[in-house]
Specification:
The chain is mostly beta strands. The strands form two sheets. It has a four-stranded antiparallel beta sheet, with no helix packed on it. It has a three-stranded antiparallel beta sheet with strand order 2-3-4, with no helix packed on it.
Length: about 170
């Protein structure tokens, strides 16, 4: 009759992913004649757990470059935007609930990037896209079958191992 053992280990028990799209506008003092560029930098993000919900919180800074006065002048402005967005997740087992014992790992799947830039009058319109994925890690049990004939198999296996393999390769 085979023997069984239970191994207690940590494993990914739930996964989540969410892409976000932020449509924003910034007012400037001058009548804009041309939108010249948009750059998103200084992205910071963290995980926030509230009950059974998981949020990604953080900020990013947007630099906007635009021309005015019939393209004879240009300016660079910047603004920091904060966010708090829920990331939905699905457990691999139906019986699970998020609790304080679970560890949450966050991954930035897509850094905040400007994907749209336009202007109208004194207003610059732009769109920033970003994405995050999460892993919830918790304890789980693995049940394994233990082979009763390990001593015989170890002897057979030991006789098949060439301990001089690396030396033989070096000499060739």
């Amino acid at each position: 009759m085979p023997n069984y053992r239970e191994i207690l280990t940590k494993a990914i028990i739930a996964k989540g992913y969410k892409a976000f799209s932020d449509e924003r506008s910034i007012q400037v003092e001058e009548e804009i004649s041309r939108s010249l560029g948009c750059w998103v930098i200084n992205h910071k993000s963290d995980i926030l757990r509230e009950g059974n919900q998981v949020f990604v919180t953080g900020s990013y800074q947007v630099f906007l470059w635009y021309g005015f006065n019939h393209d004879t002048n240009c300016k660079l402005i910047n603004q920091t935007f904060d966010f708090k967005d829920e990331v939905p997740y699905v457990f691999s087992d139906d019986a699970e609930d998020l609790n304080e014992k679970h560890e949450i790992k966050k991954y930035v799947s897509k850094q905040p990037t400007c994907v749209y830039l336009n202007h109208e009058g004194k207003t610059i319109h732009f769109k920033v896209e970003r994405a995050y994925s999460i892993d919830l890690i918790g304890e789980t049990k693995l049940t394994i079958k233990v082979n009763e004939n390990t001593k015989k198999e170890e002897t057979d296996l030991d006789s098949q191992i060439n301990t001089d393999y690396i030396l033989e390769k070096k000499q060739k």
